């Protein structure tokens, strides 16, 4: 028995020693790598970020899922953006291995979620907590930019938030003179450009986040009278607050092919075209999350499959399409009607739906259908939402590009989803809201 105990202890010691050796070696490898120095210069081509003396136009995306960072590099991106420092070191380490630079987000209290910028003690405590995270991460070689807060102007009235942002920026620059600071605004207008210019002058530049209005970004920049350098730190699919709704209030989501077309046109017409001021961008979202639907903003599906928007960003970043592309949707109807028609069904009755899709590579297509309850969330600004219930038992076992289904037995608002998949981990998607009556 003593011999067995000794064996177990020896094995445990060996395991812990090995783990310590690996972690220590990795830590030394990171610490011995040159700290990235980032700065902004005005060149003949406009404002540019320079990383270790080399111009660096940001081709990136926002990421919340560490497992997707590898695909970001594979598709030709050179940077990623986070919203907090929670998994900061893990994101930075992985980015370093893949040759990516990081705009690390610093989460700052939101007035709409109850943070009071008149509470001086709470503001001081927040600053000290952020200081600890800056000290922990500031020397990492993958770090490029500190993003202080996210859309602090969204549903916010207290201008003291910008005093706090300036204090955070000054603290960062004191501890870390090698990296840039910015804050990301929801939209851009003269009111906030002037307010931040007066209250947060320590920031190195401004960042903006727009969805449908990205189409008129050049006009908005002109109207704001902002002459300095910019990043677009969120942009992508048209938001659920910007689209038409059914008479019962369900927003009408574009299908994945319409979204992909918008990603490409918005990148070319509103980001790359503004290269005198815009120094690059982070597309939203390189991953998946629930916001009104599980498919609204994510460029990935819940099962990890890529959507057509990933294809588009691959093309935007590389100038060529990926070797295998995602199926493309052309039309989607329920009883011959589309989402705009305020479709109402009778509980328990049978109905038909049809989708038209093709594959650029002529791959075999698989059709998967689903019905979910309509989200009742009223949250905004990307705050966490619950995932609505999926209603099972409504479809036949085998489905194709057309199918029949039973309307749910309980009255209320629902969505019919279609997912069109190939054998290469790609998915096209669309949905139609409908209302079930007795």
Structural notes for this entry:
The protein is an alpha/beta fold and 438 residues long. The chain has two domains: 30-318, TIM Barrel, CATH 3.20.20; 328-437, Immunoglobulin-like (Sandwich). The chain is 29% helix and 26% strand. It contains nine helices and 18 strands. The chain has helices at residues 2-31, 69-74, 88-98, 120-137, 160-175, 190-199, 217-224, 256-271, 308-318; strands spanning 38-43, 46-51, 54-55, 58-62, 79-81, 101-106, 143-150, 180-186, 205-209, 230-234, 278-283, 328-334, 344-346, 350-358, 366-373, 402-406, 412-421, 427-437. Strand 8, helix 6 (190-199) and strand 9 form a beta-alpha-beta unit. Helix 4 runs parallel beside helix 5 and helix 8 packs parallel to helix 9 (308-318). The chain is globular, with a radius of gyration of 24 Å. Residues 1-32 have low confidence and may be disordered.
What is the CATH homologous superfamily assignment of the largest domain? Glycosidases
CATH class bucket of the largest domain: Alpha Beta
Q: Report low-confidence residues grouped into runs of 5 or more.
A: 1-32
Q: Could you report the average pLDDT, rounded to the nearest whole number?
A: 93
Count up the helices. Answer: 9
CATH topology group of the largest domain: TIM Barrel
Total count of strands: 18
The domain tally reads 2
Order of helices and strands: HEEEEHEHEHEHEHEHEHEHEEEEEEE
Secondary structural class: alpha/beta
Q: Portion of residues in helices?
A: 25-40%
Q: Which CATH architecture of the largest domain?
A: Alpha-Beta Barrel
- Give me the side-by-side strand order of the main sheet: 4-5-6-7-8-9-10-11
Quote the distance from N terminus to C terminus.
72 Å
């Amino acid at each position: 028995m003593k011999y067995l105990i000794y064996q177990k202890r020896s094995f445990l010691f060996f395991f812990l020693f090995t783990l310590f050796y690996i972690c220590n070696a990795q830590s030394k490898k990171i610490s011995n790598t040159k700290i990235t120095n980032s700065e902004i210069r005005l060149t003949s081509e406009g404002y540019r970020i320079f990383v270790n003396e080399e111009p660096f136009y940001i081709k990136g995306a926002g990421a919340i899922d560490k497992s997707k960072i590898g695909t970001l590099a594979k598709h030709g991106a050179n940077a990623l953006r986070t919203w907090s420092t929670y998994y900061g070191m893990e994101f930075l380490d992985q980015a370093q291995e893949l040759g990516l630079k990081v705009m690390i987000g610093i989460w700052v209290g939101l007035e709409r979620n109850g943070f009071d910028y008149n509470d001086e003690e709470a503001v001081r405590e927040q600053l000290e907590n952020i200081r600890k995270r800056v000290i922990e991460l500031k020397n990492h070689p993958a770090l490029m930019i500190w993003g202080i807060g996210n859309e602090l102007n969204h549903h916010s009235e207290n201008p003291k938030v910008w005093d706090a942002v300036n204090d955070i920026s000054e603290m960062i620059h004191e501890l870390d003179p090698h990296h840039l600071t910015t804050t990301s605004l929801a939209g851009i207008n003269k009111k906030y450009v002037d307010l931040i210019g007066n209250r947060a002058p320590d920031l190195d530049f401004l960042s903006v986040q727009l969805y449908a209005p990205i189409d008129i970004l050049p006009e908005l920049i002109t109207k704001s009278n902002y002459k300095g350098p910019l990043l677009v730190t969120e942009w992508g699919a048209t938001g659920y607050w910007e689209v038409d709704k059914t008479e019962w209030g369900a927003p009408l989501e574009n299908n994945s092919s319409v979204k992909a077309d918008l990603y490409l046109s918005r990148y070319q017409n509103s980001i790359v075209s503004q290269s005198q001021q815009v120094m690059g961008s982070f597309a939203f979202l390189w991953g998946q999350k629930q916001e009104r639907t599980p498919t609204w903003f994510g460029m990935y599906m819940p099962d990890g499959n890529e959507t057509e928007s990933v294809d588009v960003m691959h093309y935007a970043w590389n100038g060529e399409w990926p070797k295998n592309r995602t199926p493309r949707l052309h039309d989607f109807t329920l009883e011959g009607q589309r989402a705009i028609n305020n479709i109402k069904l009778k509980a328990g009755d049978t109905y038909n739906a049809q989708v038209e899709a093709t594959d650029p590579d002529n791959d075999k297509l698989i059709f998967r259908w689903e019905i979910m309850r309509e989200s009742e969330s009223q949250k905004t600004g990307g705050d966490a939402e619950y995932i609505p219930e999926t209603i099972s038992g409504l479809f036949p076992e085998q489905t194709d590009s057309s199918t029949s289904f039973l309307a749910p037995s309980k009255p209320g608002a629902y969505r019919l989803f279609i997912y069109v998949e190939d054998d290469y981990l790609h998915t096209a998607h669309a949905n139609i809201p409908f209302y079930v009556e007795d």
